[in-house]
Amino acid sequence: MKILILQSRMGIGDMVIYLPYIEAIAKKFNTKVSLLVKESSKAEEILKNNKHIENIIFLKRSNKNQRHDGIVGSINLIKDLKKLKFNKIFIFNSSLRYNLIAKLSGIQEIHQYPLFQKKNQHIIKAAQNFIKETLGVEIESNPIVEVNENEIKDTKNKYDIDNESLNILLGTGGSGPNKRISAKVYKSVIEMCTTKYKCRFFIATGKNDEEQKILDEIVNNNINNFTKLDDLSISEIIPIIKCCTLSICNDTSFSHLSSALGLETIILFADTATLYGSYNSKMHPITPDNNFYKDKNLMPKDKINPKIVFNKFEEILFKLNLSK
Hints:
alpha/beta, single chain, 2 domains, Rossmann fold, globular, five-stranded parallel β-sheet
């Protein structure tokens, strides 16, 4: 039996969110599955140690590669899928386009979200309902990203990571300006942490100018206890995250990865939906403190109260038996 799962959302976080539902399908039919995903999901790097994945096929609908875009692209995708002779497909969206592509590809058994119901679709509930209706099982939203033990050992040696310090991931990047928390918030939290604890910080962010500006402002020539990860690939960063004690992140891909890697993850939200920071039991969302910051001219990203973040930090340390 050959099973294809189509997950067409573009983000790393989206890929992580869908993991429990993908794995539920593989377990139900006792077989590895193939994924049809966008390259921007980084599925190849995130899932390289996942025992339920047979093959990853990229849905080529980007500016760099439009093989599967438009009418001609649909025909190309049909041709590509026909060659692979899938028996079943599970489509995690409501698109008629993909339904027709699946039929014309010769896939006999098609399972899909209800058609034409994309508007206001809840990413978690829609997936849970889909799996319950098609497989008859209820799935909790606690994704797990697997890491090879040898990779963890090699990473600890390479970056000299030990348990003498609290190793903290800072995920300071973000796909948009409304997701990026001000550097001064992070600097205040870092000062509170280092005043009481011996800490080492691993900073994960992107390469655009604003993200780099925030990174430089946080580090500010104090490189002794900061390790920058922005030149590394996702597959190189994942074992580093796994070696950390906990993480403090914006609403960014690294918040999804760190929680899926088992870290207690504090997520700082400016004005984006906290849905993306509360679906996993390891996630602890922090929102702007409008009671403390009365200035209406302040942006939400400047209203994160460092004291609240630090209190949550210590609460997690107590839970991990690491508090002072």
